[in-house]
Amino acid sequence: MLLPNAQLKTILVQAGLDDHAIVDLETFAANSRIPLQEAAIEKDAISDEKLGTFIANYLKLPFVTLEKMTIPEAVFRIVPERLARKYKVVAFAKDADGIKLAMADPTNTFIQEMVSRKTWRKVFPYLATERDIENTLQMYRKDLQKTFDELLQQELSKSTSAIDVPIEKIVDMLITYAYRDKASDIHIEPEESDSLVRFRIDGILHDVLYLDKKFHDRVVTRIKVLSRLRTDEHLSAQDGKMRMLVDDENLDLRVSIIPIAEGEKVVLRLLASHFRQFTLVDLGMNERDLRKVNAAINKSYGMILSTGPTGSGKTTSIYAILKILNTRDKNITTIEDPIEYRIKGVNQIQVNAKTSLTFANGLRSILRQDPNVIFVGEIRDNETAGIAVNAALTGHLVLSTLHTNDAATALPRLVDMKVEPFLVASTVNVIVAQRLVRKICESCKMPVTLQRSEVIKNIPEVSITSHFAPSEELHVFEGKGCKVCHFTGYEGRIGVFEVIEMSAEIKKLITEKNDSDVISKQAIAEGMTTMLDDGLEKVSKGLTTISEVLRVTKVESL
Fold first, then answer.
1. In which residue ranges of the chain is pLDDT below 70?
2. Edge-to-edge strand order for the sheet containing 490-501?
């Protein structure tokens, strides 16, 4: 840890936190067994970059944000990858005076001396946040196909047969590359003559490797062994899980294997801790919506609903809320299918159909466990909906997810599940609808100009007018494509949100059984930002593109 807690608390006071907030952070850090600095970021008390700036000022060191810079390849590779990852350090500039190093711990003189000896130049340490450095280390990425071919040639040179190629090396390499590329899933798909490996990065599948078909069955068998599945079963679906150590982190993987016409297809879901280190601010929620959500969080009863299709980040948002609620004086219990991530201090239950542990049955049992906060992974049926609403009505704070297209549709959906309209109106505190858009890659970001006449063919002119200057040309940004972003122009994702807070008028509309359109119009009249408008706001700030916003909000694309 860079600073002792006493000094860090001084910095947090300077950042505007009061004594009560700091005590809460200390309790959360102790319960979660994480440093106070990490707790402050997880609890949304301060942003990662802002805290880094305060710490740098306190230490009288310069601060750098790497994601906003373009680093020359030759400079970046001054520090070998192994040392860069181990010591969290990046060389980002080189001039006549010397080498500039971004460091998570600028007090580490060993790495500074090493770089100085290697380059025969003076080294200037800068403070950068650990998250920023880890994201920048993606520049070490090599082409997986090239690496695999090199490995294959190397191993074949040692033996006379491809049978002797160590499959464990191939599997380890696939998982390590996926982890470093921040892929959420690995798809290993048998084809007629090859085996195709694809990574899902930022919600989009990318072809990354073609394996010779003769390796496919051996790779599948290796994965079955690691996840304790039957190696002699090839005609039925199997599910399992495994754990691997990658870059000093325990990486959990969920395994799904199904038989298809050409063989067995494998999908691995990566569940890494760095994928879940998000706060509501990190996810892109604006200040207006944050105030609504925080008001709902601070109530001791009622329902907080997160809605959206599969893969829209609902569970990530709920986990961010649970981390805020997770204090020692609360009993928090969840029932999930599956448990995506473990949260210290939270009692998490896995749905199990074989033992009749359904969402509804599990929820009944939870209510006998004296809970303060309950998270129901998903409201799927009338029975679960009824129990969840009654739990919220009887003094519990209930969090859950629903599959609806927007926030307003969640209210009639509950009524369709046989929940009385007056109960919906009196129990729901807030509804958050969301989608995930890809962020423009900071390494290859460039300004572009769009014609207003073309944009308004797909987006209402009133929305364009509220976010852009009144001219025929709209000045926005896009990524031209580079090595960091796999030449897609995008790197990472951010949420677009709409949040409905229960007002007296909206409660009245629910009780009168009005449809979602009427409720949505009233919410907009009361100041709700739609997902389209939230997306356009992020476009105007240079965070994403109009085509991305159109893609996820289901508006016809440009």
1. 1-2, 31-33, 44, 138-144, 155-165, 272-277, 554-558
2. 347-350, 332-336, 373-376, 397-402, 302-307, 428-440, 490-501
Q: What fold is seen in the domain 287-436+494-531? A: Rossmann fold (3.40.50)
The CB density around residue 490, as the number of other CB atoms within 10 Å, is 23
Write the CA distances from 539 to 143, 203, 278, 320, integer angstroms.
31, 19, 21, 24
Q: What CATH topology corresponds to 5-135?
A: GMP Synthetase; Chain A, domain 3 (3.30.300)
Tokens of 388: 């969840």
Domains of the chain: which residue ranges? 5-135, 141-274, 287-436+494-531
Count of CB atoms situated within 10 Å of the CB of 293? 24
Contact between 507 and 516 (Cβ < 8 Å):
no
Are 325 and 318 within 8 A, CB to CB? no
Compute the distance between CA of residue 256 and CA of residue 101 in angstroms, rounded to an integer. Answer: 43
d(CA 512, CA 201): 44
pLDDT at 413: 92
Asked if residue 286 lies in contact with residue 534, where contact means CB atoms within 8 angstroms, the answer is yes
Q: Residue holding tokens 């990858």?
A: 81
Q: Three-state SS for 128? A: coil
Helix, strand or coil, per DSSP, at residue 159: coil
Tokens of 160: 């006379």
Query: Is domain 141-274 in CATH 3.30.450.90, yes or no?
Result: yes
163 C-beta neighbours (distance < 10 Å), count: 9
Q: What is the per-residue DSSP string for 385-435?
A: HHHHHHHHHTT-EEEEEE--SSTTTHHHHHHHTT--HHHHHHHEEEEEEEE
DSSP notation for 329-352:
T--EEEEESS--S--TT-EEEE-B
Using one digit for the tens of pLDDT, what is the confidence trace for 413-427? 999 999 999 999 999
68 by Cβ neighbours in 10 Å (0-12 / 13-18 / 19+) ranks as exposed
**pLDDT at residue 499 in the model:** 96
> What pLDDT was estimated at residue 558?
37
What single-letter amino acid sits at 527? G
Burial, 126: exposed, middle or buried (Cβ in 10 Å; 0-12, 13-18, 19+)?
A: buried
Nearest CA among 441, 549, 435 for reference residue 488: 441
pLDDT for the residue 164: 56
pTM across the whole model? 0.74
